[in-house]
TrEMBL record:
It comes from Potamilus streckersoni. Residues 452-771 form the Pyruvate phosphate dikinase AMP/ATP-binding domain. The keyword Signal applies. Gene3D superfamilies: ATP-grasp fold, A domain, ATP-grasp fold, B domain, Phosphohistidine domain. This is Phosphoenolpyruvate synthase. InterPro entries: ATP_grasp_subdomain_1, PEP-util_enz_mobile_dom, PEP_Utilizing_Enz, Phosphohistidine_dom_sf, PPDK_AMP/ATP-bd. The lineage of its organism: Eukaryota, Metazoa, Spiralia, Lophotrochozoa, Mollusca. Coiled coil: none annotated.
């Protein structure tokens, strides 16, 4: 009976579900739940869940596949690079690979850019821009979107370039070209007002991607599938027409430059997507997709309805991202697409609701500018890209809504355009590789390979293959191959030995002798005869190419290096060209000189500075010289502004040598090349052209001739010639698919093409872009960013290598720790906890607060005290909590707390194991080449992350115990008084034996030993290097030698800025330690005796706070001991982490030296100005661009170091202006900070901004600094008090000051700017005040620093 009651309703429900009729589709399109809906929905839900679970397990096990068949609902690759890379297009006519970026600012700036790669070198391009006060700009081809002759391999088309910098983290987004001013949605009568617009942005993620294959709310997908009629064909279509699509929110920052207007710096909230697979736009009937950013709370959402009748006629995908990065699916929305899209244009204003993360959101939509875009040659797809204002639950929001309409009425394109075949180097067959051709004619297909003939020769061969199609002539010629060069070197042993000597000189950094060695190699190449086999091959090829009269043909003989004229660096002008060569004797001489020019000092130094191999092979181009009347160069894009719609021609009389060598001022012509319409000459600048180079009257060589004034004063090209040249340039660019730098010549109205290399300077970053290169976004302007805590650990500017390893390690460690405490989702692909601006690091207090307050023991006041050293009244709890989901239930938080305790114990155990392991740990110790060592470092980086994770646990534990002490001292009150701080500092002064205090004590002990052994005077006269040698030699007294060795063994991994990879530890560079020892000896700081600690009983008697009897009992018997132990563990844990850092420092410095030895880097220091990923790419590709970038980064690094920020900022950090600091200085005033030690002292201030200035400290002065780390240790015995801008109760300065009994106040903003060295100051730790005195009084002074 019971079972009947249970199963009867279920059976009846299933019968009803199976037998009920299918309702008619709405508007004949949108299917509604019908027969078997629930049965299909829950069956598919179960299958989807099983598939997703299996895919996740495979991903965890590392089973990753690139096969597109393995993609689909419920499964996808988890590898970031596989997701983000440009994908090979599938074997389907509608295959695509699409990247889209949209951004919107509070000021009304809006942008949408898209490039979708298609078969046949075609692409769909969107460029939409709205600028407040200036209006709307769009691509001149719009509303059409089809583009042709793309490079076929990147997201580059129509002036747009979308460049991946780091998978799922950073992209570079840029556009340069002409845009139409004014919104145009018609196919005719388009506005004719244009402006050159250049936009460059860095896009950075603020959350993980939402992958619709695996992250879509399963109930939503099951609902969409269940409405359809199932059949074998239905499932086949789903698989065959599938596209992987993921979206990610972030921020775009950069510049917009519009012709005739001031450039604008903008920060835009941004959504991007990436789709790859199959998409025929015409299969969508309708869709509406809302992208929403809520300004106040930072909530980001996508809510949509999609109708694709052949697959799913009515599905409602969506998601919501909280400001903390946590993403939840949209479980439902009440949008009825048919109500908003029945008319020819979608509704402008409407409202809807949706549910996500258990919360209800009501959205009001107010439409704005709405450009229209068509897809396909029949214009069968119509997009309405509407920028909007929203209100979400009454709060302002910005974004856009994208509508799609199937558009069967077209009209189709009047004429269909097709791309020309891509001109690229041929793939070499095994036969090509095995054959040793010493010469190759331009007409030979394999001559188009730079691997055989070098860069210049390969380009001429490729141009020869299309000369009939571009209406120009490539002068006949051939290449002496790289194999011929190798043959010459092999058979002339002296050459091989000389090259080896040269290579050895570069490796040994014998730069002073390098010019002489290069000169010797050049002389040998030029003087030694060409070996017989190469000699015969050249003679034979001369006859074949130029026939019997070759002796009378005037030739140009040019070098063609293996690494020349490619996209990374052109190497232009580094090697020789010989003109007017006639007769075989001159040809052979010119060939030898071309070979020799590859080893000139200029060419060798170029290769060394660009990380290219010193030993290189050189081909030689032998080509008929055009005795031109006019010649020059043509850039198909403006090389300065990168404007794709401007072509630039430099022209002069005679041979082009006069232009490329800069011997005269040529005519410069600028031509507008609009996306639609005719070429237009917009500027002619007539140069002096006082000189021209012609073939010599003797018939051999060339001569310089003065140009007659009448000719010099007129443009050497007619308008017809200019337009003809430009049409040729356009065709050449179409074949290559990118911008070209073309050398040309004209003789008797025939245009000759002499070279066409890529323009390598179009994407170069500005200095300002490099300064902000690694900036991270804030989601809302309410976020608090602080430099305290992390600024103490890593002050100032950090190198790119440290930025992308250390900063990421601390970020991930913080995220995982807080998540384990019961905080929210761990965001993997963005730094939300540790952020950066201008190369400096910050902690995001708001994000940390939101996560930690979701845990059982999280308290806003305690969190702020630990990280800032003060309670921030304006950092409202209500605002913090909007940054994530509603707090978990009490039971769930208790569960996470217990789980966290277990995790903490495990992490502490692992930390102790690492402390033991590190004595014998090494990174790539046995690697003897750069590639192997890099792989070793990369594979062991998880260990580096692991140590920082366990270190953070120990650091957090000390903070929790400090919080417990404060809770008892304050009686549990949320407001903490100065007495409370002072009492906690007094109690923590019982932390004897803290590792950080060992360092200065050990230094003093070593210095004292040097003095006691009577060698101090000699020690001070030696150089630092001599001191190091002395301390490890038999001449050094055994006691001193032993103490030095013990110090290095225990503390040698420490140094200033010790987490920075470029900074060598005392063990690696002991000269820095010697400098400190000398300071201790000079100031006799070794005589300082540490104060003996007072008993716990005495300590308790000195407490000013009214602590209860039970509280005193707990403090005395248990809690103070535990808190002090935690402080000690924190300092020891940090030492362990720094020891691991030192292991990796050693590996990175070794890697840098190997890369210099292998010729991959010109200087070891440059390695630290590359990211971890860039180092790997450089080893793999020898990218000259990466080396140039590292050089520029190092240059601007010193500018970044001078930038100073406030201790705390709201929103994007803004640097402090020095003038503002000067104006804030007063004659007398009082600072307020956090007392972390006991006592009171009056004395003269010593303001020290860097450790290099520390030698100015005099005994008895009060030290005013930004922070202290272990490098400041020897100066504690000298000073009488300490004030720091950063820090808290357990910061380094606080811990060591308590050990030395020094009055110390931390968390004093701008102390180093408002106090000057020599000022009389008074520190009063009982009140937490620092008085700047005019005389001996302290009354009636302004208090600075009150929160």
């Amino acid at each position: 009976m019971l079972w009947t009651l249970v199963f009867a309703p279920i059976i009846l429900f299933l019968l009803w579900d199976i037998l009920r009729p299918d309702p008619p589709p709405v508007d004949g399109v949108y299917r509604l739940p019908g027969r078997c809906y629930y049965l299909k929905k829950y069956s598919f839900f179960l299958l989807l869940w099983l598939r997703k679970n299996r895919s996740q397990k495979r991903s965890v096990k590392g089973h990753v596949t690139e096969d597109h068949v393995s993609r689909g609902y419920g499964m996808s690759t988890s590898d970031p690079l596989q997701l983000e890379q440009c994908h090979d297009l599938e074997d389907d006519p509608h295959a695509l690979d699409s990247a889209y970026f949209a951004g919107f600012g509070k000021d009304g700036t809006r942008i949408a850019l898209r490039v979708a790669r298609r078969h046949g070198r075609e692409a769909e391009v969107w460029v939409l821009l709205e600028v407040p006060g200036l209006g709307f700009y769009q691509h001149p081809v719009h509303p059409d979107t089809c583009f042709y002759n793309t490079d076929g391999v990147s997201f580059t088309a129509g002036g747009v370039k979308l460049q991946l910098l780091e998978p799922l983290r950073r992209w570079k987004v840029s556009f340069s070209g002409m845009l139409r001013h004014g919104l145009c949605n018609t196919l005719d009568a388009k506005p004719d007002k244009y402006a050159h617009v250049k936009m460059t942005f860095i896009w950075e993620a603020v959350c993980d991607p939402f992958n619709f294959d695996v992250d879509l709310e399963m109930t939503s997908l099951a609902d969409g599938i269940a409405k359809e009629k199932w059949s074998r064909e239905f499932w086949s279509r789903l698989q065959r027409m599938h596209q992987t699509h993921y979206e990610q929110w972030g921020e775009m920052w950069g510049k917009i430059c519009i012709e005739g207007h001031e450039e604008r710096n903008v920060r835009l909230k941004s959504i991007r997507d990436h789709s790859f697979g199959v998409r025929d736009w015409r299969l969508f009937y309708r869709y509406m997709v809302h992208y929403i950013f809520v300004e106040e709370t930072g909530i980001m959402a996508m809510v949509s309805v999609v109708s694709q009748p052949v697959n799913m006629s009515h599905i409602k995908p969506g998601y919501l991202v909280y400001a903390n990065g946590e993403t939840v699916g949209v479980s439902s929305n009440n949008l009825k697409i048919w109500d908003h899209t029945r008319s020819k244009e979608p509704d402008n204003n409407y409202s809807f609701s949706f549910t996500a993360g258990g919360e209800q959101f009501h959205v009001e939509v107010e439409g704005g500018s709405t450009p229209v875009l068509y897809h396909h040659a029949d214009r069968g797809s119509k997009i309405f890209e509407r920028f909007c204002k929203y209100k979400v639950n009454g709060e302002k929001a910005i974004g856009l809504v994208e509508f799609h309409y199937r558009n069967p009425e077209g009209p189709p394109y009047a004429t269909l355009e097709k791309s020309v075949p891509l001109l690229s180097e041929p793939e070499l067959t095994d036969t090509d590789r095995e054959m040793v051709n010493l010469t190759l004619d331009f007409r030979t297909k394999s001559c188009g390979s730079s691997l055989l003939v070098g860069g210049k020769g390969a380009q001429l061969a490729l141009l020869t293959s299309i000369q009939d199609k571009i209406n120009a002539v490539v002068p006949r010629g051939f290449c002496v191959t790289l194999s011929a060069f190798e043959k010459q070197v092999q058979e002339q042993n002296e050459l091989d030995r000389s090259i080896q000597v040269l290579t050895a000189a570069v490796r040994s950094k014998d730069f002073s002798n390098l010019p002489g060695i290069c000169s010797d190699v050049v002389e040998q190449f030029a003087s030694l005869s060409i070996c017989s086999s190469v000699h015969a091959a050249i003679l034979s090829q001369l006859l074949e190419t130029f026939e019997d009269g070759y002796q009378n043909v005037m030739l140009a003989v040019r070098s063609s290096a293996a690494d020349e004229d490619h996209g990374d660096a052109s190497s232009a002008g580094q090697m020789e060209t010989y003109l007017g060569v006639k007769g075989q004797a001159e040809v052979f001489e010119a060939v030898r000189k071309c070979w020799a020019s590859a080893y000139s000092y200029q060419a060798v130094e170029y290769r060394r500075q660009h990380g290219q191999p010193i030993k290189t092979c050189v081909g030689v181009v032998i080509q008929e010289m055009v005795q031109s009347e006019i010649a020059g160069v043509m850039f198909t894009h403006d090389p300065v502004t990168a404007n794709q719609n401007i072509m630039v021609i430099d022209a002069a009389y005679g041979l082009g040598e006069v232009v490329v060598s800069g011997k005269t001022v040529p005519d410069t012509i600028r031509v507008e090349h609009p996306w639609e319409g005719e070429l237009k000459i917009i500027e002619k600048s007539v140069g002096a052209k006082s000189l021209q180079v012609n073939a010599s009257d003797s018939g051999h060589g060339v001569q310089e001739v003065t140009v007659h004034k009448d000719s010099a004063d007129t443009c050497c090209l007619t308008d017809l010639q200019i337009v003809h040249l430009c049409h040729i340039g356009i065709k050449i660019e179409q074949y290559y698919g990118n911008a070209r730098d073309i050398e040309w010549a004209i003789k008797s109205d025939t245009v000759y093409i002499l070279q066409a290399r890529p323009i390598t300077t179009l994407d170069q970053e500005t200095d300002e872009e490099l300064v902000h290169e690694f900036d991270t976004p804030v989601v809302s302007d309410s976020e608090r960013l602080i430099q305290g805590n992390i600024g103490e650990m890593m002050p100032g500017c950090v190198t790119p290598l440290t930025m992308t390893t250390f900063a990421r390690a601390i970020n991930d460690a913080t995220s995982m720790y807080i998540t384990n405490m019961g905080g929210n989702y761990h965001v993997r692909n963005t730094n939300r906890f540790v952020q950066a601006c201008c190369g400096q690091l910050f902690l995001n207090l708001t994000i940390i607060g939101q996560h930690s307050l979701s845990s059982l023991i999280g308290q806003k006041e305690a969190m702020e005290m630990n990280l800032v050293g003060a309670v921030l009244d304006d950092h409202k709890l209500s605002m913090i909590m909007t940054y994530g989901r509603k707090p978990k239930s009490l039971l769930l938080r208790i569960y996470h707390f217990i789980k966290c305790l277990k995790h903490d114990n495990e992490a502490s155990r692992v930390a102790d194991l690492w402390a033991e392991k590190l004595d014998h740990y090494s990174v790539g110790q046995n690697c003897d080449n750069a590639s192997d060592l890099y792989q070793a470092i990369d594979s062991q980086l998880p260990d580096y992350y692991d140590v920082w994770t366990t270190t953070l646990v120990k650091s957090a534990r000390s903070g929790i115990w400090g919080q417990v002490v404060m809770g008892i001292v304050s009686g549990g009150k949320p407001e903490w008084t100065v007495d409370n701080y002072a009492d906690v500092a007094l109690l923590l002064s019982k932390c004897g034996g803290v590792y950080s205090a060992e360092v200065p004590t050990a230094m003093q002990d070593l210095a004292k030993s040097i003095f006691n052994n009577g060698i101090a005077e000699d020690f001070l006269t030696m150089t630092n290097k001599e001191c190091v040698q002395f301390l490890t030699s038999e001449e050094c007294p055994q006691e001193v030698r032993h103490k030095y060795g013990t110090f290095i063994k225990r503390h040698g991994h420490r140094c200033i800025r010790e987490a920075e990879f470029i900074t060598k530890s005392w063990k690696r560079e002991p000269e820095n330690l010697i400098h400190i020892l000398k300071t201790i000896l000079k100031t006799k700081a070794y005589e300082h005796e540490q104060q003996e600690g007072i008993s716990i009983k005495e300590t308790m008697s000195k407490l000013k706070s009214p602590v209860s009897f039970f509280g005193r009992f707990l403090l005395k018997k248990f809690i103070v001991h535990k808190a002090c132990k935690a402080v000690g563990e924190r300092e020891w844990g940090k030492s362990t982490a720094i020891k691991m850092v030192d292991k990796f420092k050693e590996a990175y410095w070794k890697l840098a030296e190997l890369m210099v030895l292998e010729g991959r880097l010109p200087e070891v220091e440059l390695l630290f100005f590359l990211t971890q990923e860039e180092i790997g790419k450089l080893i793999q590709t020898r990218s000259a661009k990466l080396i140039a970038k590292s050089v520029r980064r190092r240059k601007i690094f010193h500018l970044q170091e001078e930038i100073q920020f406030p201790k705390m900022t709201v929103g994007i950090p803004v640097p402090i202006k020095k003038d503002d600091q000067q104006n804030e200085r007063k004659t007398k005033f009082t600072f307020k900070g956090m007392p972390v030690s006991q006592g009171s002292v009056k004395g003269h201030a010593r303001v020290v901004l860097s450790l290099e200035e520390a030698n100015k400290i005099q005994k008895g002065e009060i030290l005013i600094v930004c922070y202290t780390d272990v490098g400041w240790s020897p100066y504690f015995p000298l000073i009488s008090g300490l004030v720091t801008e950063m820090g808290g109760l357990i910061s380094h300065g606080a811990v060591v000051a308590r050990e030395y009994g020094l009055p110390c106040i931390v968390n004093v903003p701008q102390a180093t700017h408002l106090i000057q060295s020599g000022d009389l100051v008074h520190i009063d730790c009982s009140l937490g005040l620092i008085h700047k005195l005019e005389d001996q009084t302290v009354e009636n002074q302004d208090i600075v620093g009150e929160e």
